[in-house]
Amino acid sequence: MLLDRLGKELLFLDGGMGTLLQEKGLQPGELPEIWNLEHADEITDIHRRYVEAGSDMVLTNTFGANALKFHSGKYRLEDIVKAGVACARKGAELAADGREVYVGLDIGPTGKLLKPMGDLAFEEAYLAFRETVRYGVQAGVDFIHIETMSDTYEVKAAVLAAKENSDLPVCVTMIFDERGKLLTGGDVPSAVALLEGLRADALGVNCGLGPRQIFPVVEEIRRYASIPLIVKPNAGLPKQKDGAVFYDIDPEQFAGDMRRIVEMGACVVGGCCGTTPEHIRKMAESCACLPVLCAEAKEDTIVSSYGKAVTLGDCPIIIGERINPTGKKKFRQALKDHDIDYILKEAVAQQDSGAHILDVNVGLPDIDEKKMMCEAVEQLQSVTSLPLQIDTSDPETMEAAMRIYNGKPMVNSVNGKQESMDQVFPLVQKYGGVVVGLTIDEDGIPPTAEGRARIAQKIIREAAKYGIARKDIVIDVLAMTVSSEPEGAKTTLEALRLVRRRYGVRTVLGVSNISFGLPGRPLINSNFYTMAMLNGLSAGIINPLSADMMGSYHAYRALMNYDENCREYISRYGKEQQKDQGAVTAAPAQITLKTAIEKGLKEEAALAAKALLAAEEPLDIINSQMIPALDEVGKGFEKGSIFLPQLLMSADAARSGFGVLNEAMAAVGGSDEKKDKIILATVRGDIHDIGKNIVKVLLENYGFDVIDLGKDVAPDVIVRETLKRNVRLVGLSALMTTTVASMEQTIRLLRQRAPQCRVMVGGAVLNREYADMIGADFYGKDAMQSVYYAKELFGRGIDKQ
Amino acid sequence: MDGRMKEALRYLGYGRHAVDERTMGLIEDSFAELEEVADRKFVYRIFELIRDGEADIRIGRMQIHSASLGRNMKGCTHAALIGATLGIGVDMRMKRHSLNDMARVVVLQACASVMLEEYLDECQAGLEKELEAQGRFLRPRFSPGYGDFLICHQSEILRMLDAPKKIGLTMTDGYMLTPVKSVTAAAGISTTKEPCHIRGCESCGKRDCSYRRN
Fold first, then answer.
1. Local confidence band at A318 (pLDDT 50, 70, 90 cut-offs)
2. Residue A788: how many other CB atoms lie within 10 Å
3. Mutate which: A187, A644, A739, A784, vs B, most B CBs within 10 A
4. Which residues in chain A have Cβ-Cβ distances shorter than 8 Å to B26?
5. How far apart are CA A85 and CA A47, in angstroms?
6. Helix (H, G, I), strand (E, B), or coil: what is residue A107?
7. Distance, CA of B26 to CA of B14 (rounded, Å)
């Protein structure tokens, strides 16, 4: 059994396949997997030569054999995969000479970028990999080898496909550059955290670099990984001569370098591009007698996103609490309106304020929590690289979100109740994650620190049954409201100390509950926060936009020597001091709201709007100052005296003015005016949405309620939303000729199902004639034109000259 | 005003108009931001070029019917296929700013285009030098989607360059490159030097274009 040997003895993989095929006449751009059927003997022979050279593990010629590449061609995927396995098995049998040789199903990337930045849905990628895995399993492979992955999201889809559709060992290698980065921006710790969370059986690095350049990457993986390490470098860096790509590290040198890599801790070694049976033979000879270094179990508590890993260590970190509808009227409304941007803005604001992880809770009785959570998680990961904490009490939502999350998430939460542990731990076992354990069980929250520590222990023990290590559990000893529980704060602090000391686990705490019912809550919260950190709090769940809480945090770090030379503290609070002094000498220049908008000054516009509110009604301010200013700028844009960046700066300034006025109206309950609704979408197949976003900003400034469906939107989704929300105007954008077809399709469908609705279109390839041809009602050559059209359509009159 | 700034203004449609200070500031900030997030990567590969007719050429095993590319590659014996990208970080940054600062997005995207062109020029200059040492000369690049060089060749070019694996350059089902700030192109290679190639903007027939460089 391979699993019994992995990590305990040195195993040799094979070397390059493409290199040898090119020697035999494979052309660049030709699909090598077809050779499994057309030139089976050649493929078998390559496997045979590797096994003869000493390979214990050979990989099938199925690197690019997935459903996305092989569904429309001459050959069936099933035949290609099964023939590939047969070739490898036969080659191994011909040469094994009594040795046990394992055949691995080789799985490479799809060659597509996943959503939200690309157009391949995570589940589609999963299904593509699943198909290959199933054929491989049917054909009797011994293990699954996922390699050359440069995207953590895609590798997750592949590992899940392998794990859910086989019981075989799963090896995974990714492609890192010299800086230890993936092409999609991830780093070594984030990749290791993800793969170990998904329970890969061995992990490592292949391709991209030659053996020497790969040394530092190997060292770094070794520092973070607790499972066996695979290394499979190229024979140097690629070079070109007369149009042919070649690699110039010879077998001798390769063998010497691989020896060093084994000494560094690799226990499965082989070669990638440019390596040949001779490279493998020399490597096997040179390394055969080397001892294997077992990977030690690492104890760091790490969560990750696609781009970075965050360690919960001695220096406390911040979990932003603001993506949570509890007690927030606006947030609840945003969820009901399906306003994802609202959530994204909360995320960006918290990141900018210094949060390290973001809690995401979108539970509301009357919305589909699972759907909303998945959408929020996916979209959040396109604007922030911070790891997320999936916060839900619904196991189904939790599983769906953990599945589509790109990284190793924080999971909030499990508790000491058996039912909760039975539901949550299998998910953590399968998808990986750091789970928050609340010290509450069937008997409630124990009043004593000792009682809470006992529940912590129960959680840790139960988790161990699922193979969930202590490092992947963080305990929340719960902060009780001090106004009703006089000893509450003291108990919490004592429990923090206790679980830290006794079990060595990291801790987390929702801090602000402590002050409920008291005046001056920030005062209590920020002081309690400092006390909690001093007593062993690893991660406070706080509001990073609160100056008091952040003050406590940065002061604590400075005082406890976590902030070297108080650098961070000085950079944050040094400026404030200067600002205070500056404010005395330079009084703010008086500037009207109209001027602020025309000049595109955001802060000044807000200040001016606030000043005007003292004497005027919000609606009067809008009509007398804001609209004229916007009109003025719009006309300038049309005349060519004002350009797009300025138009948009003015739009932003106006927005900040509107923000102030809207709040004032909401305060007196007068903002329930029904706005005219407009749907905007970038059509299916199109991922360029800058134009659409420009139109959105301008329409919003003119008081329209814009429902933004995003980019790459299918025609039926646009029609469904149009009907559901009873919308009279839809704006569509497309950038390229290839996507105008789906614009036309959308218009046709709208005509059939929502004939009362008007359609305006815009985008780089369109013009008036083209727009007429596809049946649009209006073509906007720039963003202002769509505003004029909308105003006209909704009978607001045209004040355009 | 440096060349970069001028190019960015041209992409933003300023033409010869005066530019305000705030936009200039935004352009400077955007270039600085791009230096931080862009992860420039380049890949090329040289293939034999076979001419089957005025408008029919073969680059490696890719068959192309295109009069404009045929003209562009007249007299060439080889062609370099090229792929370059600024990486996914730029896309993410633009998405992030689009939440509350569209002016920045528009400027950032113009600056990213400038940076990408600059980078391609730089890479191409290196390749040019290498080829000249062998007595061969590189023509200006030509991208699928321009003229009658059909965009559907995108997938083949990416495959021939092994671009997803080498530089993380992929495309959508609609032939759009992802990351968005990326380019693929073909550039002819000949053994005779063609003097004074007209390239890029100046080679275009549309003289009343507001983005025209002059």
1. very high
2. 18
3. A644
4. 645
5. 11
6. strand
7. 14
State how far the Cα of A48 lies from the Cα of A88, in Å rounded to an integer: 8
Give the C-alpha separation, A534 to A547, whole Å.
Answer: 19
Contact B170 A686 (CB under 8 A): no
Q: Using CB atoms, which residue from B41, B60, B96 is nearest to A28?
A: B60
- How many degrees, rounded to 5, is the angle at CA A472 between CA A159 and CA A476? 140
Do A510 and A479 meet the contact criterion of CB atoms below 8 Å apart? yes
Question: Coil, helix or strand for A554?
Answer: helix
Show the tokens assigned to A480.
């009780």
d(CA A428, CA A414): 10
| Calpha distance B60→B77 (Å, rounded) | 11
Disruptive mutation site among A110, A183, A686, A688 for chain B (greatest number of B CBs within 10 Å) = A183
Interface predicted TM-score (ipTM): 0.90
| CA atoms within 13 Å, Cβ hemisphere of B189 | 25
* CA separation for the pair B214, B202 (Å, rounded): 8
Q: Are A610 and A625 in contact (CB under 8 A)?
A: no
What is the enclosing helix (H) or strand (E) of A707?
Answer: strand A705-708
Q: What is the pLDDT of residue A768?
A: 93
Q: How far apart are CA A343 and CA A323, in angstroms?
A: 7
SS3 A244: strand
Distance CA A67, CA A52 (A): 32
Closest CA to A542 of A533, A434, A534: A533
CB contact under 8 A, A111 and B156: no
| DSSP at A422 | H
* Tokens, residue A788: 């004029």
Instruction: Inform me whether the C-beta atom of residue B103 falls under 8 Å from chain A C-beta atoms.
Output: yes
Is B150 in the A-facing interface, judged by CB distances under 8 Å? no
Nearest chain B alpha carbon to A694:
B102
Q: Which residue has the tokens 């896309």?
A: B91
User: Does A687 contact B172 at a Cβ distance shorter than 8 Å?
Assistant: yes
Strands A202-206 and A229-232: parallel
User: Contacts of residue A694 in chain B, CB cutoff 8 Å?
Assistant: 102, 106
Structural contact between residues B69 and B186, judged by C-beta atoms closer than 8 angstroms: yes
User: For A178, which DSSP code?
Assistant: T
Interface of A with B in 152-191 (CB under 8 A): 175, 181, 183-185
CB of A730 closer than 8 Å to CB of A704: no
Residue B164 has pLDDT above 60, yes or no: yes
Using only C-alpha atoms, chain A has a radius of gyration, in whole angstroms, of 30
Q: Each residue of B107-128: b (16+ CB within 10 Å) or e?
A: bbbbbbbbbbeebbeebbeebb
For residues A484 and B33, give the distance between their C-alpha atoms in angstroms, rounded to a whole number.
50
Q: Does A353 touch chain B (CB under 8 A)?
A: no
Per the CB < 8 Å rule, is A738 touching B176?
yes
% of chain B exceeding 90 in pLDDT: 79
Q: Is the pLDDT of residue A797 over 90?
A: no
Q: Give the model's pLDDT for residue A801.
A: 34
Question: How many CB atoms neighbour CB A126 within 10 A?
Answer: 21
Q: Is the peptide bond before B182 cis (omega within 30 degrees of 0)?
A: no
How many Å lie between the alpha carbon of A482 and the closest alpha carbon of chain B?
39
Task: Give the residue from chain B lying closest to A687, CA to CA.
Answer: B176
- The DSSP bridge partners found for residue A143 are A104
Kindly report the pTM of this predicted structure.
0.93
A41 near A34, Cβ under 8 Å? no
- CB–CB of A220/A193 below 8 Å? no
Give the residues across from B49 on adjacent strands: B59
Q: A105: which strand partners? A: A144
**Helix, strand, coil distribution of chain B in percent, nearest 5:** 45, 20, 35
